[in-house]
Specification:
The protein has helices at about 1-5, 10-20, 30-45, 50-60, 85-90, 135-150, 165-175, 185-195, 205-215; strands spanning about 65-70, 75-80, 95-100, 110-120, 125-130, 160-165, 180-185. By secondary structure, it is an alpha/beta fold. The chain folds into three domains: about 1-45, no CATH class; about 55-185, Nucleotidyltransferase, domain 5; about 185-218. A seven-stranded mixed sheet has the order 1-2-5-4-3-6-7, with helices on both faces. Helix 2 packs across helix 3 and helix 6 packs across helix 7 (about 165-175).
């Protein structure tokens, strides 16, 4: 049952609850579920490394993907992938994109770049993901150029790109999408204001008033 639920992308906590609902005497813990999930994934991966297994799944499921290797080595340096349906949505609704980077959340400490698009009814859709070996401008330029290659028409590109103010990423945007307006993410702006300004305000009520006015200003 754990294997089947893991295959269907059910979260660990939900798997544990499902098992205990079906058998009240079951003594499994969240660690038991985690260990079994890891065994299942290792079995599915076989002798392949995690990156090799990722590339196999990408190919089997018909994703469009691009990658580059380290010089003179058989080691993947950067990899980008996008689903064909996502590419269709991107070309149908190219006006705005959001780019977000996350650091140090995986075994290899690779940076993951996520690109999100928006439809005309304000629904978001994943455009592409990229694992990058470094947060240098060169890596971002490579990924953005591959995303740019997903557009069917060269003259139909995002008018606005929102990002979380990574300076290397912003430099890459200026090079690859020079005609797009570069905006900062409101969530990250508010987060930075809270981090820098809260220590200057003593009373919680005053702080809440300040944040209400700030968000109204935004």
């Amino acid at each position: 049952m754990i294997n089947q639920l893991t295959k269907n992308m059910v979260k660990l906590g939900q798997i544990l609850l499902t098992i205990k609902d079906q058998d009240q005497t079951n003594l499994s813990t969240i660690k038991t579920i985690y260990n079994e999930c890891q065994r299942y994934r290792r079995k599915q991966r076989g002798p392949r490394t995690k990156i090799q297994h990722l590339m196999k799944l990408i190919e089997c499921n018909g994703y469009v993907y691009r990658f580059r290797r380290l010089d003179n080595e058989d080691v993947v340096k950067d990899i980008m992938w996008a689903h064909t349906d996502s590419i269709k949505l991107l070309n149908s609704f190219p006006t705005m994109s959001i780019c977000h980077t996350t650091y140090k959340t995986n075994k290899y400490c690779l940076l993951i770049l996520e690109i999100v698009g928006f439809t005309s009814i304000n629904m978001n859709s994943i455009v592409a993901f990229a694992y990058l070996s470094s947060k240098r401008t060169n890596n971002f330029e490579w990924a953005l150029n591959k995303v740019k290659g997903l557009f069917v028409k060269d003259y139909v590109l995002p008018q606005v790109i929102v990002n979380d103010r990574g300076l290397a990423f912003m430099n890459a945007l200026e090079t690859v999408f020079s005609s797009s307006i570069n905006l900062l993410c409101v969530f990250h702006i508010i987060k930075n204001v809270k981090a820098k300004c809260k220590i200057l305000v003593d009373k919680a009520e005053e702080w809440q008033n300040i944040m209400d006015v700030w968000e109204l200003l935004l």
